[in-house]
Design goal:
Elements: H1 4-9, H2 12-56, E1 65-71, E2 79-86, E3 89-96, E4 102-104, E5 109-111, E6 114-115, H3 117-131, E7 142-148, E8 156-158, E9 161-165, H4 166-175, H5 182-196, H6 229-274
Parallel strand pairs: 3-7, 7-9
Antiparallel strand pairs: 1-2, 2-3, 4-5, 5-6, 8-9
Helix pairs in contact: 2-4
Length: 286
């Protein structure tokens, strides 16, 4: 006769394995859902970039050159969606194919209840990276733009970045005051094309997880204030560099003076040693 304890323990090992496999299956389902969500985001991002590129293509007739999907200077795993070079300057454009409600609160862009401050900071960083490649005399003419693919939003400044809908981005660039000649445009476009060429990583920082839809913010005329930011930054650094240079020169001058004094003292000492004993002057004292 089989002891009751043996009957009760039957199948425990298999049950434990079933439990572990069920937990693993649930983990894989969550991972699959995450990967599929990322796939949809990447597909939406790619479609958004394509639509913005099509919209910008008409600017070529106005003397603009537009670069698409280029390398982000200084970063190995990021790219820039669009860089436009034309009479109005250099414009770094990041496309966002969001869905959901877009709203503005003072200097803040929101999608639903989520602040897009991080995304705007990313556009500002990309703009600064491109600004460093532009000739110094034209660095004030670089503008950062966040382009909303699905929302017909009129141009609006949020901090240093201009937010605009895809349907109004061409109007925004055409309205910029002319600051570059045709020669400037050609030279700058060649420089940026060479500097930004090369493979870009698929894991870029330009696709967002969040969607967002139309809103009706107040219309504002694009200003040049954001474009002057890089130059103001450079001006703040110049006094510091000059002060460091002056301090370094002062230290060098002091070291040279000390060396001369030491050399003169050693020379006088040597001359006194070579004098006859009777000619040396006695030390004065009380």
């Amino acid at each position: 006769m089989v002891p009751p304890s043996s009957v009760q323990s039957a199948g425990r090992g298999a049950a434990e394995q079933a439990r572990r496999h069920a937990a693993r299956a649930e983990e894989l389902r969550r991972e699959l859902a995450r990967v599929e969500r990322e796939q949809r985001n990447w597909e939406a991002g790619a479609e958004g970039e394509r639509l913005v590129a099509e919209a910008l293509a008409v600017l070529e007739a106005d003397g603009w050159t537009v670069l698409h999907d280029v390398r982000w200077p200084g970063r190995q795993r990021a790219n820039l969606d669009h860089v436009a070079i034309g009479p109005g300057g250099v414009v770094v454009i990041d496309s966002k194919n969001w869905t959901g409600a877009v709203s503005f609160r003072e200097d803040e862009l929101r999608v639903g209840n989520r602040s897009m401050a991080k995304e705007l900071t990313g556009v500002a960083a990309a703009t600064a990276a491109v600004t460093a490649l532009v000739p110094a005399r034209h660095r004030r003419d670089v503008l950062g733009v966040l382009c909303l693919v699905q929302q017909p939003v009129a141009a609006r400044e949020v901090g240093a970045i201009t937010v605009v809908g895809r349907t109004a981005v061409v109007e925004l660039l055409r309205a910029l005051p002319p600051v570059l000649t045709a020669g400037d445009v050609a030279r700058t476009a060649r420089t940026l094309a060479a500097e930004l060429a090369g493979p870009s990583s698929g894991e870029t920082l330009t696709t967002a997880d969040v969607p967002a839809p139309r809103s009706a913010p107040r219309r504002s005329v694009p200003q040049r204030q954001a474009r002057r930011a890089p130059r103001r930054t450079a001006r703040r650094r110049h006094p510091v560099l000059r002060a460091l240079l002056r301090a370094a020169l002062a230290v060098v001058a002091l070291l040279v003076a000390l060396a001369l004094v030491q050399s003169t003292a050693e020379s006088l000492t040597e001359q006194l040693r070579q004098l006859p004993a009777g000619t040396q002057q006695p030390a004065t004292g009380p």
